Amino acid sequence: MTRTLHTIRNIGIMAHVDAGKTTLTERILFNAGRIHKTGDVHTGNTEMDSRAVEKAHGITISAAATSLEWQGCDITIIDTPGHVDFTIEVERSLRVLDGAVAVFSAVSGVEPQSETVWHQANRYSTPRICFINKMDSLGADFEGCVADIRDRLGADPIVVQLPIGAESDLSGVIELISMQALIWTDGATEPQIGPVPGTLMAKAQKARQMLVEDVVDQDDHALAHYLEGKPIAADLLTKLVRLACINGAGVPVLAGSAYRNIGVQPLMDAIAAYCPSPLDRPAVEGRDADGTPVQRATDPEAPLLGLVGKTKQTQHGALSTVRLYAGRLDKGMAVLNATTGTRERVGRILKMHADDHQDLTFAQAGDVVAVMGLKSVRAGDTLSDPKAPVVLDGLVCPDPVIEAVVEAPDAASQSKLGQALVAMAREDPSLRVGTDTETGQTLVAGMGELHLQICLEEIATTHGVTAKLGQPRVAYREALTRAATVDRTLRKQSGGPGQYARVKLVIEPAEDIVFVNEITGGAVPSEFIPAVEAGVRAALSTGTGHGWPISGAKVRLIDGAFHPNDSSATAFERCAREATVESFAQAGVVVLEPLMKVDVTSPADHVGAVIGDLNARRGMVISSEAGKAGQQIVAHVPLANMFGYVGALRSLSRGRATFAMVLDHYAQVPGALAKELRAAT
Helix or strand or coil: residue 231? Predict the structure, then answer.
């Protein structure tokens, strides 16, 4: 196959847990001849969920990349996790990909994590194709799922297929562009192509007319053609759907059953036909060495520019997934980590297929490859030509909402545990490792109970340390309620060189931590400004002494003083830290707690008990309405009151209700409870 930038497709597969992403990826690999036998999630023998911990839990935990050829295209596919605890895997995959396939269950429609990953894709303006899976399942509803995509996601679905039958009667799909029926009989791999069944012809004709109306405005020539009453040919309609997908004007919608391999090949055709190549995506934006904004289009001849999406420690060394936006990367090449300023050398360049790989001598703009030999890079770092450094925006990493003490089984294993945690935190930016300042115990923080549990299982499997996890606890924060001004002087003299520093700070509430230097006239020498900022940030990171960071503050350095002999960076850092801590008394600091958006699906006869229990957990019910799989209850509930909810919900509903939850926002803890929390720390 002749490989060009036009034929490259870098695609992610994303969905709510159990929508069928991994099964779909297995069928895609099988149809492309990449594997010769399909695995099954339930038996733990899938190609993409290759890690032991994934096989044990039956879910995707770490995004896995594979590559294949189809319809003249070189396609890289990343299968992403569907569980909310591993949303960072979706985030960093979308950051380096050009398009995505959003998979929905035809029974459940748009589910909570479907919304989360959809909004993540919106942030990167990622073109998407929708695949309505499980059309062979009891309760499958194609039209209802399309309506869900429109109503709940705010998208414009472009229906390019209609299913033939549903549930046990599903036999194939109608391709509206070609007006042909594709039928899979007796488990056949290839479909039989024939005319649209007469009983569905009127419905198909109406749907095709709607399809034309949805996309014809993508091209002036086609619009004029349509307004003249002329028919739109299949090849032109394909072009219009592609334009609508790439431009974000709509999302093509297809249907089928990954488990029965119905509709999978047409989906692969759609990836090749509709999804963008690297050339179809906008130029990436970054900043050069002077901080000046620059843009780089996809060009193999331009200076090297790439982004590290993921790092992973293997038995052969560090493995980094890199998306190349410009230039060429050669084996043995020296590159600059523009984010940190360190130089690296490329060891090997690999084209990945789950845990297998193919060695490459080079990669170029548009490629997503794995690189070995990069010793100090982290996810979100920029690789650049040393002669033309550019730094790209990194990853949007969610803050942890839960933490727990982790302990080694014995003193001899403590060092090994520490090394394992550091390695895991380097691989997973949403995992944080720290130390309890009072007890000296090691703390690990993450996105949920399952996240921490998987962390320990990985440590046991990969590093041979069977660690113990303490009782999970909520990651609280603190926030300022009003502005404060503080003027503090540090003056120490005890023989020898003294310490002198004075800073005047104005601290006010803000969404993020921002430090602003407003010194004029040299009241604080420029070489001490970084030390002042370091002291401010150190104080904000620990808050009022309970171990909870200040969530956001704008700190302005407006005045100060120094001594020509006794001032130093150490003195200014200490003075700024003490001044910041002193300001908290004036600033009205309150405690914040994470509020989770809890989506419960319950049979109607258990709704009252479920809502009553949510209220008892200090929850606020936002909505309750009939859904495809039962009554859909949405509530905001403090995370502190959601521990053990799995068992409680099973008991309340006799095992028939399900739930999903994701961080929604932080909110102020009621006064009495805040006093209790502070007293307990």
Answer: coil
